Amino acid sequence: MITKEEIREYIIGLGLCSVGFTHPMPFDRLEKVLKERQQLGYLSGFEKGTVEERCRPETHLGWVRSIIAVALPYTLYYNIQSTGIKGSISGSAVGEDYHRLLGSKLEQAAQYISKRVQGFRYAVMADTGPLVDREIAYRSGIGWYGKNCSIITPISGSRVFLGELLTNLDLEPDNLLEDHCGGCTCCIDNCPTGALTEPYTLDARKCISYLTQQRGVIPRELRAKMETSIYGCDRCLLCCPHNSSGIGSGGLTSVDLMELVNMDRHEFDSRYKQSALGWRGLNVIKRNAVIALGNLGLQEGLNALAAALRHPSPVIRGHSAWAVGRIGGGRARDMLIKSLTHEKDRYVRGEIEAALEELAQN
C-alpha cells in the first residue's frame, strides 16, 4: 500500500510546489457557472468538450476513485514594455512546453505509485483533457480562485502550471483553502481590455492571453491594447501580491519583432518547436508580431511590414495593413496605396482602405 503523504513527498521531490487530493464527483458548482458564461458568450472556444463533459470525471473514466492534483511553478518576468523593436512573451512560454514537462513529471509519479500498488490504474492530464484543471486544483486544496479566475497557491501564487493524475486509489480528499484575495482588485484594475468584467468573471474573448493564441482576425478595437504581446499577457499576474516572490527580470521574454516577421517556418521550428510558441504556430505568432510593430509606431518597422504586406496569408496581410497605417507617415501611405492596386482579397482590401482613411484623418 501507499499513503497520501508518501505520494505527496515523492511528487514534491520532482520539483512541483503543491500536491492535493480530491474525489471524482461532478463539478456541480462549476457546471452552473460555465453554462451561465456560455450563454453570455464568455467562453474562449479553446475548451475541449461540452460543459457537461468538462465537469463530470466519471463519464470519461468510470474506474476513477480519486484525483491527485499538482502545481508546477514558473517564473514571471517584467518585460511587458520592451525597449527597442522587441515583443514580449509570457513567462509561462519560456523554455520547454509545459504540457510535455508536466506530463512527464506526472508519468514519473504514476510509475512510482505503480511499483507500490498492484493493479494501479491512472490517466495523466496536463491541460490535455476535457476536465477543468483549475476546478480540480481548487477542490484538492492546492489553491483558491483569484479574482482573475486563476488558481492562487500559498507557495507560488498563480504562477503555476496545473495537472492531475486520475487514479483508482481510495484516497481521502484534502480540505479546501480559504480565499485570501480580500479587498484587492489589482488584477481587474490592470486588465487592459476589461476582460475581467467583475471579480471571478472572465470574458475570454477579450483576454490578451487568448487573443494572442486564437487564429484568424483580431478585432480592430483590441489590437492597440495588446501593446507588444506576442504570446500570453501576465499583466494580472505581475500585479498580484501573491506573486511578488517569483518575479524576475532580464531578456528571457523579449523577442525580436523584425526577425519574427521575416522568419520562415524552418527557422521558427528550429527555435521554438519545443516551446508554447511552437505549439501555436508561425502564422499566429507572426500576426501578433506585426500588431506589435504597429503599436510601437517606429518607422523602422515598415521595413519588415513591407514584406508582410505580400505574405501568402490574408490574415497577416490584413493586420500588416493596420500596422502600417498605425505607424503612419508618407512612406506608410505609399505602401498601402501600392498594396491596394494588386490586392484581391476582400478582407485585406477592407483593412487597407480603413488604414488609408485613418491616415487621411490624421
Task: Describe the 3D structure.
With 362 residues, the protein is an alpha+beta fold. Among the domains are: 4-75 and 96-167, no CATH class; 263-362, Leucine-rich Repeat Variant (Alpha Horseshoe). The protein has helices at 4-13, 28-40, 51-54, 98-116, 133-139, 186-189, 208-211, 220-223, 235-238, 257-262, 265-272, 276-280, 282-296, 301-308, 314-327, 330-342, 346-361, and strands at residues 18-22, 66-73, 76-77, 86-89, 122-125, 144-145, 151-152, 160-167, 196-198, 201-202, 229-231, 247-248, 254-256. The longest helix has 19 residues, at 98-116. It is elongated.
Count the beta strands.
13
Q: Helical residue percent? A: 40-55%
User: Gap between N and C termini, in Å?
Assistant: 74 Å
Contiguous runs where pLDDT drops below 50 for at least 5 residues: none
The helix tally amounts to 17
Q: What would you report as the Rg, rounded to the nearest angstrom?
A: 23 Å
Shape: elongated
Q: Which series of helices and strands comes N to C? A: HEHHEEEHEHEEEHEEHHEHEEHHHHHHHH
Q: What is the residue-averaged pLDDT? A: 92
- In percent terms, what proportion of residues is strand? 5-15%
- What strand order characterises the main sheet? 1-2-8-5
Please identify the structural class as seen in this structure.
alpha+beta
For the report, how would you describe the main beta sheet? 4 strands, antiparallel
